[in-house]
């Protein structure tokens, strides 16, 4: 009897592993189909394919659905609905969604304009290595929005973004002295080597 129970349990585990693998493949296929529909300009189909994936917690699908609501592609334009989907993905640590949520706070779309929250979400995305957010955080420091104006920290974030960008293009702020440029470069090195802790 004990041997029979072991065999039944082994079969159950095998079936569960196979079903999990098949479900994972189905989700990947659905996500690929949704992206394909979006790229082909069939936004209504893309929205229908992204929605169940987003409802089941796929951060990429949530972000894409948020973008569709933000731009009114395949769904009615609805900034609050866009914020909802961005927030779900952002809370799960998905950097592109964190950055998009920062954009929503920056521009007051679907939420009240709030530069401190903008900085919060850009910083989270930047610390997760998302290059556009690193650059945008530099802009916030450069313009003193949500943080005190600080050209050195602005340049630091722009240096980090340039180092991580595929093109590596770096724009120096005109307001900086040579000493401040060197300071920003050193801060960027420290920030990166400390994995963005204390930046």
Number of separate helices: 9
Low-confidence residue ranges: 8-28
Separation of termini? 62 Å
Query: Kindly state the mean pLDDT as a whole number?
Result: 83
| Beta strand count | 0
The biggest beta sheet reads: none
Rg over CA atoms: 22 Å
What order do the helices and strands follow? HHHHHHHHH
Summing up helix and strand content along with how strands pair, one would put the structural category as: mainly alpha
Strand fraction:
under 5%
Percent in helix? over 70%
Q: Which word captures the global form?
A: elongated
Short description:
This protein has 199 residues and is mainly alpha-helical. It has helices spanning 2-39, 43-55, 59-71, 79-91, 95-107, 115-127, 131-143, 151-164, 178-193. It starts with a helix and ends in a 6-residue tail after the last helix.
Description:
The protein has 199 residues and is mostly helical. It has 9 helices and no strands. The chain has helices spanning 2-39, 43-55, 59-71, 79-91, 95-107, 115-127, 131-143, 151-164, 178-193. The longest helix is centred in the N-terminal third of the chain and has 38 residues, at 2-39. The model is unreliable at 8-28 (pLDDT under 50).
Features:
0% strand; 73% helix; elongated
List the helices and strands and how they pair.
Blueprint: H1 2-39, H2 43-55, H3 59-71, H4 79-91, H5 95-107, H6 115-127, H7 131-143, H8 151-164, H9 178-193
Helix pairs in contact: 1-2, 2-3, 3-4, 4-5, 5-6, 6-7, 7-8, 8-9
